[in-house]
Every structure is written in structure tokens, then in C-alpha cells.
């Protein structure tokens, strides 16, 4: 049988990628919690196996780890709500501080740009009217967004329970889709995915804890108000790779600006966040997570933007673990190995044209 041309093969692969993206966009309300539950179930498997070794019934051995996660999440939500209440309690002081900063900004604009306070007020009023015209559209979608969020978190425990309970059936189905000679390779892929998923997600949970504590302690030393709230917000936003840290810096600066009369406190906050980020990226996180799968930073950033535009915040959070799973699969599949090379970060390969296939082709042609 004549082999299919390379251009047709690549066209089919790209068409497959497009169809997968379309399915994700159409069914994201159901698919995204399923993907999230897949990684949560991987993280909970050791706890489930511990309960099974203690002779717990299968249903209870699945239920108790999920209950533990729900309790931890409830405590975090309570802590965030508590800290937010403290911030709102200082509203009179926040209003005073904002007025002081806005007056100083207005004076600076008048001196530098020769833009009078009256003109500034007119400009602000015009922009406020434009903003209000968009507000109706934003609020009209708030109900649907809230419903989607409730559905997302409502499906998580259900999906996680069923994935752990019936994992043997799913594994059997996957094996039956391939030839027996490929079963060993598939088992190794599943083991590597499980190992990567556990280390990555457990690392993120540990990261949440030490970033919150480190930032809280450092800001408290400098006397920054609402230090714990800033630490919690930055730690959770930092879960979104690359973009989350930028948003965390901005929100930390805004909270400090609202709660302090001194502009220098913003520098303390940004400096503390920079130190924590340096420790996290270069010392702590590499030791906790390790180098299970090295991803190309450019492809990672593109993947985060694409996933965010298609499925929202949950897609941005899941982009890296999904790319890591795809790289593990591609590296062990001869047909898609080139995609694994594209996703990878093989910085040691200084001369990219030196690989076996190219060398053999060059030798034959000469």
C-alpha cells in the first residue's frame, strides 16, 4: 500500500488538533472539571491505597480522601473570607488613604502635563460613563458565570469519586484499544503520568503553604497591613503559570496602596514578592517537584494563553500538567515523537541537526 504523503499526514494532525479544541470549547463545562478531577484523583491515589491497606471498604477508602480535600478547601475559603472582612472593616481608613493618594496624583499630573484638576475630573467622568455602558453586559453574564462555577465545583467530587472507584475499568478499556505488544509501553506511560501528576500537584499544595507563610512573615516584619491577605492572594494567583505572578504583584500593590498612606510600603511589598518568587523558582519548587517533564517555555506560554481563551481560568491552571501528559505520551509514540520534541526543553542539544534520522539521510545522499 502506497504511503500517505507527509503534507496530508500533517494536515490530518492539524485538523485533529482543531477538532479537539472545538470539542473543548463546546463542552468545557463538563470536560474541564473532568480533567481537573483526573489530576486530583492521581494525587489522592496514595491516600486511597493507605485506607485500603487498613481494610477500609472500597467506597469509604475513596470517600475519605475526597472529604479531606473538601475540609481543607473549606478552611482556606474561611481564612480568605476572614481576612477580607478585616480589610472591609478598615473602609474609612482606606477611603482616606485613597483620597490622599489621588490628590497627590492629581497634583503631579497638573505639574507635569499641565492638565488642570477640572479637566482631570471631566476626563474621569467621561471614562466612567464608558465603563458603565459596559457594566450591563458584564453583569448580564455574571449569572451564567456563577452557574458555571457552581457546576464546575459541584462536579469535581463526583468525577473524582467515580474516576478512583472505576479506574480499573478505564485502564482495561485503554489496554483493549491497543495491541498486546503495546501494553507494556502503555503501562509505563500510565505509571510515569501518575508519578508526574502526584509530584506536580502535591508540590503545588506545598507551594501554596510556604508562599503564604513566607510572604506573610516578611510583610509583617515591615509592618504592612493585611499581610496575610496579600500572601493568600499571591499564593493562589501564582498557581496560574507566568501570568498569575504578575496579577499577584498588581493586587498586592493595590491593597497596600489602599491600606497605607506611605507609598514606600508598595516597594516593600514588591520587594518581598520578588524575594519569595526567587526562592520559589530557583530553590524550593525545583527540589519539591523535581524535573519530571521539562517543557519548552515558549510553548508553555502559548498553551496557557490558548487554554485560557478557550476554557477560562481552569484551562490556564491545567495547561502545564496537560502539556506534560501529552509530552510523556508523545515521547513514547513513534508517530508523534516530533511533537514531544516540540514540547520539550532539550537545551543541551546545541546542534539540532545532529540526530540519527538526519545523519542517516545525509550519509545516504552523499
TrEMBL record:
One of its GO terms (biological process) is transmembrane transport. The chain crosses the membrane at residues 12-40, 60-81, 131-152, 158-179, 200-222, 228-251, 263-279, 299-330. This is AI-2E family transporter. It is found in: Cell membrane. The lineage of its organism: Bacteria, Pseudomonadati, Bacteroidota, Chitinophagia, Chitinophagales. It is a multi-pass membrane protein. The keyword Transmembrane applies. Keywords: Cell membrane, Membrane, Transmembrane, Transmembrane helix, Transport. Belongs to the autoinducer-2 exporter (AI-2E) (TC 2.A.86) family.
Amino acid at each position: 500500500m502506497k504511503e500517505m504523503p507527509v503534507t496530508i499526514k500533517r494536515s490530518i494532525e492539524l485538523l485533529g488538533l482543531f477538532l479537539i479544541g472545538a470539542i473543548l470549547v463546546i463542552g468545557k463545562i463538563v470536560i474541564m472539571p473532568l480533567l481537573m478531577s483526573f489530576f486530583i484523583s492521581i494525587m489522592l491515589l496514595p491516600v486511597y491505597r493507605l485506607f485500603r491497606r487498613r481494610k477500609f471498604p472500597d467506597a469509604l477508602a475513596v470517600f475519605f480522601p475526597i472529604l479531606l480535600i473538601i475540609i481543607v478547601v473549606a478552611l482556606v475559603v474561611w481564612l480568605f473570607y476572614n481576612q477580607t472582612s478585616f480589610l472591609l472593616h478598615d473602609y474609612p481608613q482606606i477611603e482616606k488613604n485613597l483620597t490622599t493618594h489621588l490628590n497627590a496624583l492629581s497634583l503631579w499630573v497638573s505639574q507635569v502635563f499641565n492638565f488642570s484638576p477640572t479637566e482631570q475630573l471631566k476626563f474621569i467622568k467621561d471614562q466612567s460613563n464608558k465603563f458603565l455602558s459596559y457594566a450591563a453586559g458584564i453583569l448580564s453574564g455574571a449569572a451564567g458565570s456563577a452557574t458555571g462555577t457552581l457546576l464546575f465545583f459541584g462536579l469535581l467530587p463526583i468525577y473524582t469519586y467515580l474516576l478512583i472507584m472505576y479506574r480499573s475499568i478505564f485502564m482495561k478499556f485503554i489496554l483493549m484499544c491497543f495491541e498486546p505488544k503495546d501494553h507494556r509501553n502503555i503501562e509505563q506511560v500510565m505509571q510515569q503520568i501518575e508519578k508526574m501528576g502526584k509530584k506536580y500537584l502535591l508540590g503545588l499544595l506545598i507551594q501554596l503553604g510556604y508562599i503564604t507563610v513566607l510572604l506573610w512573615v516578611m510583610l509583617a516584619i515591615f509592618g504592612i497591613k493585611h499581610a496575610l491577605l496579600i500572601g493568600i492572594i499571591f499564593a493562589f494567583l501564582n498557581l496560574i503559570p507566568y501570568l498569575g505572578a504578575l496579577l499577584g504583584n498588581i493586587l498586592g500593590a493595590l491593597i497596600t496602596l489602599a491600606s497605607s498612606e506611605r507609598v514606600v510600603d508598595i516597594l516593600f511589598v514588591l520587594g518581598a514578592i520578588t524575594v519569595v518568587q526567587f526562592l520559589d523558582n530557583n530553590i524550593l519548587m525545583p527540589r519539591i517537584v523535581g524535573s519530571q517533564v521539562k517543557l519548552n517555555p515558549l510553548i508553555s506560554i502559548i498553551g496557557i494563553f490558548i487554554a485560557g481563551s478557550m476554557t477560562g481560568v481552569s484551562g490556564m491552571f491545567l495547561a502545564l500538567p496537560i502539556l506534560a501528559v501529552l509530552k510523556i505520551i508523545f515521547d513514547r509514540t513513534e508517530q508523534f515523537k516530533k511533537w514531544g520534541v516540540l514540547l520539550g526543553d532539550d537545551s543541551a542539544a546545541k546542534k539540532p541537526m545532529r540526530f540519527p534520522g538526519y545523519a542517516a539521510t545525509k550519509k545516504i545522499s552523499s
